[in-house]
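Need tokens for this chain, all 253 residues.
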Amino acid sequence: MSNESFQNEFEIYNQEQELFEIKKMIKLMNIELKNVVEQTNQNHMNLINSLVKNDFISSINKHTLDNSPQMLDKGLIKNCELREGCKKTFQNYIKKHIGDLNPEDVSDEKINNIKEELKDMKNAACQREHSDICFNSLFDIVTNQMSLVKSLKTSKNTEASVDILAIDEEFVVNEYLDPIANKQRLNILKSIAIEPKTFSKLSQITKLRGGNLLFHINKLQDANLIIQKHERGEYVLSKKGFKLIGLVSSLEK
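Here are the structure tokens for all 253 residues:
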């Protein structure tokens, strides 16, 4: 082989090596760029979810505070001369414990402490036969609200990276996409996210009556997206429903 041929082959080899290194560098840059984009998107979604979540929690706390007089009216003994005084004291107590309630503050220990605190309040206030009924009514209002807010507590793994390839298509469609693949059901979720709604209120909002509305409500309940506080009571979002409506909101934005 002549020196010239050898030199040409050597130059070609160097060029191929340089090209290989360039391709390798571009590939690494693409991986880094993809990671940055995914992290940015995740941070953006976490921020949106946090804002939506905080607004929702404030809304349900405000709803309970605004409706506490009516709730107490139903629970307190009617023919008691101390009724109005107790009602005022109970409203102040509800305001103290629910005003700025958030999931991170709620624990089983705190709920038990509330129970003991109310016991002490009852013993200090009066020894009437029906006092248990009044104080149980107050306890139910406060602890039910705490349980509802506690259900919105974010899991430590919420912000963990998601393996897209591990997504179960059938599960996602059945559990999330199909239940909200309807304008009326999405409207119901959106309305309840703002504040709890009764059946009649949802009927006004959706313009649906009787069985038609019940069909969509049952669909959302079967998917565990909404729950009813008690028979004939208001509908509220479940933890799963809250996450889903937050995700839909972030997609729109």
